[in-house]
Design goal:
- By secondary structure, the chain is mainly β.
- The chain is built from three helices and 17 strands.
- Helix 1 packs antiparallel against helix 2.
């Protein structure tokens, strides 16, 4: 009798799930199946997206804009794909570094989202897709296209790193890892693709010690670093907080107008939250 009870209960729950699907909710069925002792579909698992760069909010999604010189606007995504996006247009200064970047994040209430000392020990993931075109780069000169940047460094400390995606005018895209003492190394390299969309994700444990680490995903595939591992260890915070920065930041000697496009940028606590 006990077995028959569970058979009948399962039939009733499955019938209810089918009713939910028929009205197009797409939400109730996984919960009902889970209640019946079945595992919910991984694709139906709730996500924990903490922030999203929604173009409908304009540049208010960012904490600040650094335009010296350049403009940051909302524009249709190139190639007729992905709807609206953020467009970064940089122009020339004479003999000087040039920067056109967004800095940090603000929530829908306009409050700054801080990743800092109070969040030490937490794992975060940033995900986004980018297209760069045009992107004039002089051979041997650097251009940074993404930074996770330490801010609020004590006197005598270095206001750099811990991560930069950059090129050196060598046709390659490099993942640069920077330590608190300023030492840096390229821990991953791949071809720099101009005029085409590519997706990225960076996962990291916010840490001031050796238990910190970083992961890197390129076009949906997790990458191995120069240590042969999927994680590279090291501190990720040595100031009060870190700022995420997209756009174009380049050394002197790079001349000409350049444009970067940002789409579907998100912050979450798992790769699934931000994967594209």
């Amino acid at each position: 009798m006990r077995g028959e009870f569970f058979v009948e209960r399962r039939k009733a729950l499955l019938a209810l799930a089918g009713t939910a699907g028929a009205v197009g909710t797409g939400i109730l069925a996984p919960k009902v199946l889970a209640a019946a002792g079945e595992a919910a579909s991984p694709s139906a698992a709730p996500k924990s997206v903490l922030w999203a760069a929604d173009p409908s909010r304009g540049t208010a999604v960012f904490d600040g804009l650094e335009k010296s010189p350049g403009t940051i606007t909302v524009a249709p995504a190139p190639q007729g794909r992905y709807g609206q996006c953020f467009r970064y247009d940089i122009t020339d200064l004479t003999g000087s570094k040039e920067r056109c970047e967004s800095r940090g994040m603000r929530d829908t209430n306009g409050k700054v989202i801080t990743l800092g000392t109070a969040q030490v020990g937490t794992t975060y993931y940033f995900g986004w897709r980018s297209l760069w075109a045009p992107l004039p780069i002089a051979k041997g000169k650097w251009t940074a296209l993404y930074q996770l940047h330490v801010s609020g460094v004590p006197s005598g400390g270095l206001n750099v790193g811990p991560f930069v995606l950059r090129t050196l005018g060598d046709g390659q895209l490099h993942f640069q890892h920077i330590s608190p003492d300023g030492s840096d190394r390229h821990i991953w390299s791949g071809p720099l693709r101009i005029g085409t969309w590519n997706s990225f994700a960076i996962g990291f444990k916010l840490s001031k010690g050796s238990d910190g680490w970083v992961e890197f995903y390129y076009n949906g595939a997790q990458q191995s670093f120069t240590n042969g591992q999927a994680r590279y260890p090291g501190p990720t915070l040595w100031g009060t907080h870190v700022n995420t920065k997209w756009g174009i930041y380049r050394s002197g000697g790079n001349n000409g107008a350049g444009s970067a496009y940002l789409n579907s940028a998100r912050l979450g606590t798992s790769y699934a939250d931000v994967a594209l």
